[in-house]
Design a protein that fits this description.
This protein has 146 residues and is α/β, with parallel strands linked by helices. The protein has one domain: Protein tyrosine phosphatase superfamily (Protein-Tyrosine Phosphatase, Chain A). It is built from six helices and five strands, in the order ββαβαβαβααα. Strand 1 and strand 2 form a beta hairpin.
């Protein structure tokens, strides 16, 4: 298995964030062991190429620099849980791999019982630009799961 250097991993090579991968990198992503991608771009990027390479795909558009809806977060959490249960690694991306991707990754960890503050501290130790805007930070600080 090779290594794809643009992913910032949070969970031992199983869950991480990255910028939108160029089409020419998709074969390398698959060869590196990546099994799934979640995208929060406003457009459906590279879907045919992900399918061609056997990479599972989740897409839920979020406006750049904004926060997702609670429904989007819950759908993403279900996808992450299923992907990890299936033994696949997952990379989450938006355009730059920091704001929307970081917000969704943080929301996932908050759903597992972590506080927004500890999640942001943990993530920013790995990627200092994770969760890019005050709007996204405020969304996470108010996020509550049943």
């Amino acid at each position: 298995m090779s290594h794809y250097e643009k992913i910032w991993w949070l969970a031992d090579g199983k869950l991480g964030g990255m910028p939108k991968p160029p089409v020419e990198d998709i074969a390398q992503l698959k060869a590196s062991g990546l099994g799934a991608i979640a995208s929060f771009l406003e457009g459906r990027d590279n879907l045919a190429e992900y399918e061609e390479h056997g990479i599972e795909y989740f897409w839920s558009p979020v406006v750049d620099d904004e926060a997702p809806s609670l429904e989007q977060v819950k759908d993403f959490i279900n996808f992450v849980d299923q992907t990890l249960e299936d033994g696949l690694s997952l990379a989450v991306h938006c355009k730059g791999g920091n704001g929307r991707a970081g917000t969704m990754l943080a929301a996932y960890y908050i759903s597992k019982g972590k506080s927004a503050e500890e999640v942001l501290q943990f993530m920013r130790a790995i990627n200092p630009r994770a969760v890019a805007t005050k709007t996204q930070e405020e969304f996470l600080s108010q996020l509550v799961f049943d």
